[in-house]
Write a structure and sequence with these properties.
Number of helices: 5
Distance between the termini: 38 Å
Mean pLDDT: 87
CATH topology: D-Maltodextrin-Binding Protein, domain 2
Radius of gyration: 15 Å
CATH class: Alpha Beta
CATH architecture: 3-Layer(aba) Sandwich
Strand order of the largest sheet: 2-6-1-5-3-4
Number of domains: 1
Length: 135
């Protein structure tokens, strides 16, 4: 019975989850980033690129994408990350990220902002943005 439920509803890390990638503007010289650096950027603990420019973080608020990102990259639940962002705003400890509704909005913003970083579904990658490989 448990096996049937897992097959129908998906187990953690199942193929039903969105495959998430990080994207940056084409003018960003980076091609890769460590998992730890990505985590620090999205938790507002790293706020500048190595070149010194301020990092403009974009969060994709599409539920499946957001949940996969939180689980796979931040190792948090969606609720934990949301509460973290709200706490950051409340106590003034950082700048909350911009929130976009879907992959298209994330790509449009990242394409127009040289120092932006965001996350989208892997199958949404197109020529407007550059893949930032997590090493």
């Amino acid at each position: 019975m448990l096996l049937l439920l897992l097959m129908l509803y998906g187990a953690p890390g199942s193929c039903l989850a969105a495959e998430i990638i990080l994207v940056v503007n084409h003018d960003n010289p980076l091609t890769g980033i460590t998992w730890r650096a990505a985590e620090r950027i999205f938790l507002s603990k790293k706020t500048e690129w190595t070149q010194g420019e301020h990092i403009h973080v974009v969060v994709n608020n599409e539920p499946e994408v957001y949940a996969s990102f939180c689980r796979d990259i931040l190792k948090k639940t969606s609720l934990q990350y949301l509460l973290y962002r709200k706490k950051m705003l409340f106590n003034g400890s950082g700048i909350p990220p911009r929130v976009m509704n879907n992959d298209e909005e994330v790509k449009d913003f990242v394409a127009s902002a040289k120092d932006a970083i965001g996350f989208i579904r892997q199958e949404s990658l197109d020529s407007r943005v550059k893949l930032l490989v997590i090493r």
